[in-house]
Amino acid sequence: MSGLMSLGTRAMFLNYAALQTTGANISNANTAGYSRQEVQVSTAGGQYTGAGFFGKGAQIDTVARASDAFLTRQAVASKSQAALDATRLEQLQRLEEVFPSGEEGIGYAAGQLLNAFVDVANRPQDASARQVVLARTEELASRLRAAGEQFDTLQSGVVEDVRNSVATVNALAQRIAQVNQDIAKTQGTGHQPNDLLDQRDRLIGELSGYVQVTTVPADDGTLGVFIGGGQRLVLGNNALQLKAVPDTFDPAKVQLAVTDAGTDRPLPVDALTGGSIPALIRFQKEDLDDARALVGQMASAIAGRLNEQQSLGLDLRQPPGTGAPLLAVGAPRVLPASTNAGSASVSITVSDTTQLQASDYELRADASVPGAYLVTRLSDGLTRSVVPGDSIDGFTIGVGIPAPGPNDRFRLQPVSRAAQDVRRALDDPRGIAAASQVTATAGAGNTGTASVSALRTVSGSIDPSLTVGIAFTDDAGNYTWTLTDASSTVVSSGSGTWSAGTPIALNGFELELNGVPRGGDTLQVAKTLYPESNNGNALSLLDLRDEGMVGRQDLGGGVFSPGVTITSAYASAMADIGVRVQSAKSSSEISASVAADTEQVRASKSGVNLDEEAARLIQYQQGYQAAAKVLQVAQSVFDTLLQAAGR
Questions:
Q1: Based on the number of CB atoms within 10 Å of its own CB, is 380 exposed (0-12), middle (13-18) or buried (19 or more)?
Q2: Which of 326, 372, 453, 486 could cross-link 514 (Cys pair, CB 3.0–4.6 Å)?
């Protein structure tokens, strides 16, 4: 009787345990991170008798959770990638707002400023036309400043988000370390703490949303958590601290470091491949820096060319003088690396605003050439060897004393801060230099059809005190010229040949003609006596609308690639940011879909299906009732034996 009762008791306990586990599954069907649990049973073996082996029933081995380590790792990795793409898309969409289209854009304001010189050219003495130019200048400066301020706001937001995320990561790492310790304590029981394992998986999943992790299991049941290509974050019950530290070059930026034994070890950005924190750091390093450089390049180019052309004309002050600058922009700057050992200094000065590129640069000593330095353009990785005093991409490099050491590095920023401090530098409308410093007149006895089409001052080397006389010697366009001073003394002379469409260039000016001169015709270019009625420089300022002033490149040998107009440069910048947004949107949609699919596959393996659990509930209920029937039969048989033995 004891054998039959033992079988019934074992069966009841087994089915009761299964019912209890099924009930727990049903209760946690909507609990995030819960893995379905099931009772694992095995036969209790057989008992030998002379009639053979009789089974002793079943026994409970353990309660195991339905989990697949591979699917869990896949879900964690895909979640990390989805978080990176979603965060970058969010930041890029904010950055796109800095580049509005239509009348709200920087390109439109720049175009309106240059168009305002039409009225000045038509009415050089009109104060209202000049005031419009100043108003348009202020509008452009305001929009450039606003863009610079928005860049700073975005940068501050990135730093704040990184710091908040780092605090969350450290809290999660501490909790994972604590759960590791709790799991290790149960190692000697021979059974897995399912709820603790689920809790640890959930914490690692949350952590992967901030930074991509890899995990390595240990023999004691703990899980090592590593980031940044192998840097440990959690090992056993010990968690290191992640830290947001100032960037090596720019303290306004942030980078990640791990604090170990009191030392902050920076993590390479390239080693951080997933999660929202790497997305933020890459955004500030790549997208935000590129956008800042694009706007700075435009600000430097238009300010440089406006101011340069202003300086070549005459204003309406008494006495008339060369034009003062219209726009002032932020100065270029050099940022030494925080790891530099000495007190060496490097400086840069802008030499040609039209050649400035939308990029930062890094300077370090050239180990192969004493006294030389390697300058790397960060936008495309182009590296050139230079010596102090060399000019590249529109700026000149200077090196102080003491010279940089072999391991010193410097970040060169010729344009990145130009827009932040841009302002209108001229307040007096009389200061607009609409007049050319020299005026051309045709001889009264000319017999050809040649007339002055345009006279433009193109060089600061012009000497308006010199009078240029041009005399055509034949009908083929050959001419002689002389430069005479105020005392009519000939300073220099020469000859040349004019052809249609080609200006005559002398003494820092370019003279364009309409019609055809004949032999004996003369022209004279002399100092402008009445600036209030002259529009020569206003026409040159107006011509800046169609000048490729942005992004010219020196190809060597005196050959330059053409730049683009200021409006085209802004359109190109808008397109660049727009392409990044669309690319990020596509990447985010794809990675989010992959993450959802991967999580669904994991959940199908580990999650709770209420229909299945309901069926199991009925199954185990029937099993429990059958086991109870076995006990009831055993009791009845036992009672029958007692009655038979009592007779």
A1: exposed
A2: 453
Contact at 8 Å (CB) between 605 and 66? yes
The whole-number pLDDT of residue 2 equals 66
**DSSP class of residue 432?**
-
- Tell me the domain boundaries of the chain: 2-66+607-646, 293-312+323-424, 438-527
Neighbours of 61 (CB within 10 A): 12
Q: Is 148:99 a contact under the CB 8 Å cutoff?
A: no
The pLDDT value recorded for residue 270 is 85
Dihedral of CA 356/357/359/360: which sign?
A: negative
Cβ atoms of residues 67 and 223 within 8 Å: no
Closest alpha carbon to 87 in 246, 320, 240, 277: 277
Question: pLDDT value at position 540?
Answer: 92
- Whether the pLDDT of residue 1 is over 60: the answer is no
Tell me the torsion sign for CA atoms 27, 29, 33, 36.
positive
Distance CA(575)–CA(187), nearest Å, equals 59
Q: Which residues pair with 336 in a beta bridge?
A: 410
What is the model's pTM?
0.87
Find out whether 209 and 79 touch, Cβ atoms under 8 Å.
yes
- Judged by DSSP in three states, 46 sits in strand
If residue 166 lies in a helix (H) or strand (E), which one and from where to where?
A: helix 127-185
CB hemisphere CA count around 92 (13 angstroms): 27
How far are the Cα atoms of 323, 352, 547, 569, 572 from residue 550, in angstroms, in the given order? Answer: 22, 11, 9, 7, 11
Cα 155 to Cα 253: distance, rounded to the nearest angstrom? 7
From 390, 270, 404, 252, select the one nearest 343 (Cα to Cα).
404
Lowest mean pLDDT among 2-16, 193-207, 379-393: 2-16
Contact in structure between 137 and 327 (CB atoms under 8 Å): yes
- What element of type H or E holds 348? strand 346-350
Which positions ≥6 away from 382 have C-beta within 8 Å? 376
Alpha carbon 345 to chain centroid, angstroms: 28
Alpha-carbon distances, residue 443 vs 129, 355, 523, 525 (angstroms): 33, 41, 6, 11
Task: Tell me what pLDDT residue 642 has.
Answer: 80
DSSP string, 460-516: TT--TTSEEEEEE-STTSEEEEEEE-TT--EEEEEEEE--TT--EEETTEEEEEES-
- Roughly how many angstroms between the first and final C-alpha of the chain, as a whole number? 19
